[in-house]
Write a structure and sequence with these properties.
Helices cover 34% and strands 22% of the residues. The chain contains 14 helices and 15 strands. The strands form 3 sheets. It has a 6-stranded antiparallel β-sheet, with helices on both faces. A 5-stranded mixed β-sheet has the order 4-1-2-3-15, sandwiched between helices. The mean pLDDT is 93.
């Protein structure tokens, strides 16, 4: 297989590479990235320096590289890339039918926009964290209605975003008033036990610790793959410990309420044109009802951990879209009993590689 990965220098790109590491003798990796100063991108066999996906010139970069490299399979390294790939597939269905394992771009666009995710789920009677998009002072009455409905704390996040960037916990009115004075924001109800967050409020009465983060020890995530015929695949659920936005501990759990919820969501997504990898982050609300608060139309930062636990979404996608390439699927019927722990390791970035990529716009391992 010749595999092309966009934004390969991202954490997700690294996880895709980790997922296929044991099969690299069968997979030639072509990576695209806008930053040459990233040691991750030199794990590929061939790397191209391109414009950012959002740049108008990226379309020409992508087309020229696809024409030259002729990849068998293409995967995104960021959420915006999922939208780009879905759209280019819809415009060139014959060219990308098997290469891009996604459906229509409508669902990825909804997933990227956190408020549209909420409205879509509300319309389709899918349980999602109650959300409100504050734009300006004209929304103050509705904001008060939200406050009357939900107690502190709240989660504040950008309307569009990824990787847990610019996400805040709002603990009281003082925090909230500061946000109101600074413009637009998306506010969500806090799912789970609020005491786990509120206890950190006391830290700041003393001062700001030199090293500090609010630990996320119970991030529930569910991954499935929707086939082109609408079949909802196995639902693999994990509980993760997140450190600075990275899953550093992962363990499989079983929860049939989550399985049923994912199946219900997936059926709605398929009716709206989506198939391919689908990821859900969810928690029980304060009444114990499971609600989704984040959706992703791609592999995720725990894809490599799931492979080690016996669930190989890359192998499943290869089986569904390019079975003739005979890429091994590492999914096990009996899942691995254990936990995955992620530790940092050193990555050497060679000056000669950076210089070569910047000068030639392409770098090759051999």
């Amino acid at each position: 297989m010749k595999l092309l990965i966009t934004s390969v220098g991202s954490l997700l790109g690294q996880n895709i590479l980790d997922s296929i590491e044991s099969r690299r003798d069968l997979i030639h990796v072509v990576g695209l990235d806008a930053n040459a100063d990233n040691p991750r991108i030199y794990r590929c066999d061939t790397t191209y320096l391109v414009n950012y996906t959002e740049d108008n010139h990226f379309f020409n970069d992508f087309n020229a590289i696809v024409e030259k490299e002729k990849p068998d399979f293409i995967l995104p390294g960021r959420d915006g890339d999922s939208i780009f790939l879905s759209e280019i597939k819809s415009k060139n269905p014959d060219r990308f039918k098997k290469r891009i394992p996604f459906g229509s771009s409508a669902i990825p666009r909804i997933m990227l926009d956190k408020y549209q995710s909420y409205l879509f789920c509300l319309k389709n009677k899918l349980p999602f964290a109650d959300s409100f998009y504050y734009r300006n002072e004209n929304d103050k009455i509705k904001l008060e209605e939200f406050k009357n409905k939900h107690d502190f704390p709240y989660v504040i996040k950008p309307k569009e975003g990824f990787g847990s960037n610019n996400v805040y916990y709002v603990l009281d009115n003082e925090n909230l008033n500061e946000l109101v004075n600074n413009g637009e924001f998306l506010i969500q109800e806090y799912l789970g036990d609020p005491s786990t967050i509120l206890k950190y409020k006391n830290h700041f009465k003393i001062g700001i610790p030199l090293f500090f983060q609010v630990p996320e020890n119970e991030q529930y995530a569910a991954q499935t793959i929707i086939s082109q015929d609408g079949t909802v695949g196995e639902v693999f659920i994990t509980i993760n410990t997140m450190v600075h936005g990275r899953a550093e501990y992962t363990k499989q759990i079983m929860n049939y309420d989550i399985v049923k919820l994912v199946q219900k969501y997936s059926e709605v997504f398929y009716k709206n044109g989506w198939y391919g990898p689908t990821n859900f982050q969810l928690k029980p609300d304060r009444d114990g009802k499971w609600k989704v608060f984040e959706l992703n139309s791609r592999l995720t930062g725990t894809s490599s951990a799931r492979v080690l636990l016996g669930y190989d979404e890359f192998g499943i996608l290869a089986d569904l879209f390019v079975p003739e390439l005979l890429i091994p699927n590492l999914t096990k019927k009996e899942k691995v009993k254990g936990q995955v722990m992620k530790f940092l390791h050193d990555n050497l970035l060679y000056d000669k590689n950076v210089e070569s990529l910047k000068n030639d716009k392409v770098w090759k391992r051999f």
